[in-house]
Description:
The protein has about 110 residues and is mainly alpha-helical. It is built from four helices and no strands.
Amino acid sequence: MNLRDVQQQVDAYISQFKEGYFPPLVNLARLTEEVGELARELNHRYGPKTKKPGEPDGDVALELADILFVVVVLANQMGIDLDEAVERTMTKYRVRDADRWERKEE
């Protein structure tokens, strides 16, 4: 599945509700909340903060997917093709980091 397919699936999901998409700043707040949930889980796993007794382990994959969902919502609202945007970003990193890191030998 490519990002364009994901964007279409998210749009179909959101479009079934009368309210449709929330305003972009509401979705930005949602994105911030989701990133906070990921940060909390990573802090429990790799940082000094321990979970409360009986608190279940979180699912990092689902937290990342929640973040991706909200990013897709924002992209859809703004008419951004994420496949193209990611390709542009990868090109930017390839050019910027071409001489930055020592490459692995194969």
